[in-house]
């Protein structure tokens, strides 16, 4: 126990040998103003020694209350009640509840993780199905395109063949008609030549003989062509 | 102190805060506290129970899948102590979890509520901590013998040591085993008592003008330090309980 008594008595004295063991008393002049009291304490403090002996303190301090055995019964009684009450509340209500909440949360988290895994798997399935459908559609499209191409090719071929045949027919027709025209123009030229020859013979006073005129014209045409 | 009443002096009573007084009467000279009557111990222990209920029951009332603030603290305390029991005492120790959780929360809230101004620190009393430590000691010893029978005594017979040393070690182990409740209880009470007494001394110096700023800063610093001590001592008390329980469950080194 340390007790600093600030008395208003002169002169300043630091009393370390208090009748009561363990007490340090600082006395200060009477009627002194507060600054001098402070000065007195300031001057006194460095010399204050704290006796380590535990003093039998007066009633107000009560010594060390921790070793006042008269209070032990009271403290232990209330401690046991408190511990039992706390234990009861914790073990019956609080801890099962918190444990339940923690377990629920764990389940929810693992459930969510499982659901996420499931969704991921579904997404992967959907993606592969999509890929498969896409490949099938592509090959089908290619098949249809090839088929269409073949059909169109056949039509084109048929049309070309038809056109070729027509062209050939028309060419033959034209050939034939050219031949006819050439034939007829040859005949015309021959008859004109015969008439001109006959007229020439008549003009010269001769009597044109149709057979010899014809033979002469043919001979000359033969030689010309 | 004989002249205490005479002057307006600097009087330090750092231990007065630990006095056990009845709530509804004043003790006359020579009178002592009856074991059954409500005292300040009763009041502050009631506050401890209320604080435990507030945190662990009222705080978790929502049973939220997403916890609110109080519930997360309750879950944190639960998780911390549960993990400690599981890690230190082993899986079989988990059935003592409610008991250890009770000790932890009681000591923690006693330490913290003791820091409330004008509060009373029940864990600063050796009577309280000794009962807690003895309860642990008796439980651990009882569990040790109940589970392992006489082979629990192998805890003191260190088979990995040379044969000649074993009797010596056995004596040392035996002494250390019986010192456990003493150190277990005095560690807690001593820390709390010393911290609170030092704070009171610092606070007493605040009456002197020129030293007051240092004193107030000292009180603030000590207060912060004592909050740390409150948590650390609760943790230490709990983890030592787990360590002792481990010895009872697995006495073979």
Provide an overview of this structure:
The complex is a heterodimer of chains A (225) and B (253). Helices cover 70% and strands 5% of the residues of chain A. Chain A has 225 residues and is mostly helical. In chain A, strands 2-4-3 form a three-stranded mixed sheet, with helices on one face. Chain A is rod-shaped and about 195 Å long. The termini of chain A are far apart. Chain B is an all-alpha fold. Chain B has one domain (39-249). Chain B is 63% helix and 1% strand. At the A-B interface, strand 1, strand 2, helix 1 and helix 2 of A face strand 1, helix 1, helix 2, helix 3 and helix 4 of B. Strand 1 (3-4) of chain A pairs antiparallel with strand 1 (10-11) of chain B.
Cα-based radius of gyration of chain A, to the nearest Å: 73 Å
**End-to-end distance of chain A:** 166 Å
Strand sequence of the main sheet of chain A, in spatial order? 2-4-3
What shape does the CA trace of chain B take? globular
Q: Helix proportion of residues of chain B, in percent?
A: 55-70%
Task: Determine the N-to-C terminus distance of chain B.
Answer: 56 Å
Low-pLDDT sequence parts of chain A: 1-61
Helix content of chain A: over 70%
| Count of domains of chain B | 1
């Amino acid at each position: 126990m340390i007790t600093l008594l600030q008395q208003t008595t002169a002169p300043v004295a630091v009393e370390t040998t208090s009748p009561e063991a363990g007490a340090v008393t600082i006395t200060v002049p009477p009627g002194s103003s507060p600054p001098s009291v402070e000065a007195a304490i300031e001057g006194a403090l460095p010399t204050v020694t704290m006796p380590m002996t535990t003093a039998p303190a007066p009633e107000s301090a009560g010594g060390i209350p921790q070793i006042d055995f008269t209070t032990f019964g009271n403290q232990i009684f209330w401690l046991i009640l408190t511990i039992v009450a706390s234990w009861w509340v914790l073990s019956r209500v609080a801890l099962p509840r918190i444990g339940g909440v923690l377990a629920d949360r764990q389940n929810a988290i693992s459930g969510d993780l499982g659901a996420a895994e499931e969704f991921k798997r579904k997404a992967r399935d959907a993606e592969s199905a999509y890929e498969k459908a896409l490949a099938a559609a592509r090959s089908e499209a290619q098949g249809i395109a090839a088929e269409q191409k073949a059909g169109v090719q056949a039509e084109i071929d048929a049309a070309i063949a038809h056109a070729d045949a027509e062209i050939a027919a028309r060419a033959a027709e034209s050939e034939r008609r050219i031949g006819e025209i050439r034939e007829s123009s040859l005949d015309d030229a021959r008859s004109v030549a015969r008439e001109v020859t006959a007229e020439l013979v008549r003009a010269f006073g001769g009597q044109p003989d149709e057979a010899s005129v014809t033979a002469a014209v043919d001979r000359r045409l033969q030689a010309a062509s | 102190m004989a002249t205490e009443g005479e002057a307006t002096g600097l009087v330090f009573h750092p231990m007065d805060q630990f006095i056990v007084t009845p709530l509804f009467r004043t003790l006359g000279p020579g009178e002592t506290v009856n074991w059954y009557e409500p005292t300040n111990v009763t009041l502050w222990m009631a506050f401890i129970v209320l604080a435990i209920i507030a945190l662990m029951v009222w705080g978790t009332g929502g049973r939220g899948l997403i916890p609110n603030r109080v519930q997360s603290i309750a879950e944190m305390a639960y998780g911390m102590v549960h993990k400690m029991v599981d890690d230190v005492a082993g899986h079989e120790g988990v059935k003592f979890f409610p008991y250890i959780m009770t000790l932890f929360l009681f000591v923690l809230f006693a330490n913290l509520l003791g820091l409330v101004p004008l509060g009373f620190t029940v864990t600063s009393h050796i009577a309280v901590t000794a009962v807690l430590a003895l309860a642990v000691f008796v439980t651990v010893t009882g569990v040790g013998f109940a589970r392992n029978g006489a082979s629990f005594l192998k805890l003191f017979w260190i088979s990995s040591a040379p044969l000649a040393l074993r009797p010596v070690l056995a004596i040392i182990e035996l002494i250390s085993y019986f010192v456990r409740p003493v150190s277990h209880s005095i560690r807690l009470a001593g820390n709390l008592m010393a911290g609170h007494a030092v704070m009171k001394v610092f606070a007493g110096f605040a009456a002197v003008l020129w030293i007051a700023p240092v004193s107030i800063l000292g009180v603030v610093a000590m207060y912060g330090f004592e909050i740390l001590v409150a948590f650390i001592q609760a943790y230490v008390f709990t983890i030592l309980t787990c360590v002792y329980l481990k010895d009872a469950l697995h006495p073979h080194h």
